[in-house]
Amino acid sequence: MREWVAHNKSIPDEIMEILANDADERVRFNVATKNRLPEHLQLKLAKDSDCSVGKRIVYNKKATIQVLTFLLNDEDEDIRTLAKNRFDERRYK
Question: How many helices (H) and strands (E) does the chain have?
Answer without folding.
Answer: 7, 0
